[in-house]
Amino acid sequence: MTIVKDIEARGMHHCETTALGVLLRHEGLDLSEPMLFGLGSGLSFIYWDSKSMAFPFLGGRVKPFDLTRNLTARLGLTLLVEETTSPRKAWENVATPIDAGRPVGLQLDCHHLEYFRSKVHFGGHVVAMYGYDEHDVYLVDTDQQGGAVRTSRVSLAMARAERGPMTARNRSFTITLPEHSPCWQDQIIPAIRDCADAFLAAPIANLGHRGIEKAAEQVPKWLLRTGDPQQDLPQAALLMERAGTGGALFRALYRDFLGECVQLIDDSDLRAGHTLYAEAATLWTDVASLITKAGESGDVGHLEQASVILHDLSRIERNAMQVLRQL
Q1: In the chain, pLDDT over 90 holds for what percent of residues?
Q2: If pLDDT is split at 50, 70 and 90, which confidence band does 12 have?
Q3: 132: phi > 0 → left, psi -120 to 50 → alpha, else beta; which?
Q4: Residue 310: how many CB atoms within 10 A of its CB?
Q5: What is the mean pLDDT of residues 104-115?
Q6: 273's torsion region: left (phi>0), alpha (psi -120 to 50) or beta?
Q7: Residues sharing a CB contact under 8 Å with residue 315, sequence separation 6 or more, in sequence order
Q8: What Rg value do the Cα atoms of the chain yield, rounded?
Q9: Residue ranges per structural domain of the chain
């Protein structure tokens, strides 16, 4: 058995911030989950639907691995990413750093992980790996999935090699801090501004605040969009609240990030942005609740109420990002 020493196997709400936390704490940098999410400019929005999809998807963050790239670039960390189509090389890419005493991040499809409680395909899942033996690998996943967990080497190889939406080719990565620990506080305002710029200038209408507006227009049609509303609508709401989002489609994480920033930086625009995202987080939870009720009851009135709130959320988040962009 090979186990990296001094690993704090702490599961958090979101998979990518959980893995980042493991890798960075091992390097000596311990940041809260909201701070990791915010410094990585992780907040976004997408309304995703196509003929090939069984049901629309509401996403609240940037694309998988963009958060990691954003965070490491902003803090001046060394991010070494390996990808390969070779199963042998894929194993070498994780075993070599672990043998050298360093944990590794992995992007994979969680469907194949034996400990995973919900057997769905999602190729953008991220875990930290800190050990292995002849049969199993030792991982850190979200608190919801058990925190410190293990799965067989066979299942891990399948998860890493899976092809489909958002998958990567056996992607693994390590992070190294510079000789002098980065002054991450100096990067708070640039991270907030970059996130606001991207949110406000989204290139297509199903992204950013315009995407929330599109969701407001489409959600009332959801009972007609599905053949199984009692399954699909509560499932959509569950993904918004509990599927690694930290609640309120990642808005609770961003609210808490801004709350931490307010304690560090005295700025009226920052305080205003925090207040607006606190309001938005509450409203997103209300939307999820109404979507659940619509699926359970078949009453379109709940979706119409959700639509009204989504119109408000588009305005609130646009206003919040316009204020935060001025920092």
Answers
A1: 93
A2: very high
A3: beta
A4: 26
A5: 96
A6: alpha
A7: 209
A8: 20
A9: 2-30+78-176, 184-324
Q: Which two tokens stand for residue 69?
A: 């790239």
What was the pLDDT predicted at 261? 98
| pLDDT, tens digit, 9 for 90 and up, residues 178-209 | 988 889 999 999 999 999 999 999 889 999 99
User: Length of the chain, please?
Assistant: 327
Question: What distance in Å separates the CA atoms of residue 58 and residue 92, rounded to the nearest whole number?
Answer: 36
End-to-end CA distance of the chain: 50
Give yes or no for a contact between 147 and 21, defined as CB atoms under 8 angstroms apart: no
Q: How confident is the model at residue 50 (pLDDT cuts 50, 70, 90)?
A: confident
Please state, rounded to an integer, the average pLDDT across all residues of the chain. 96
β-strand pairing of 136-140 with 2-3: unpaired
Report pLDDT for 78: 97
Report the C-alpha gap between 197 and 81 in whole angstroms. Answer: 27
Q: Residue 127 pairs with which residues in a beta bridge?
A: 106
Answer for the pair 20, 8: CB distance below 8 angstroms, yes or no.
no
pTM above 0.90, yes or no: yes
- Beta 78-82 vs 43-48: how paired, if at all? unpaired
The fold for domain 2-30+78-176 equals Cathepsin B; Chain A (3.90.70)
| Residues contacting 100, CB < 8 A, separation 6+ | none
CA atoms of 53 and 41, how far apart (whole Å): 28
Half-sphere exposure of 292 (CA within 13 A, CB side): 12
Tokens representing 164 are: 């489909």
DSSP-derived 3-state class of residue 115: coil
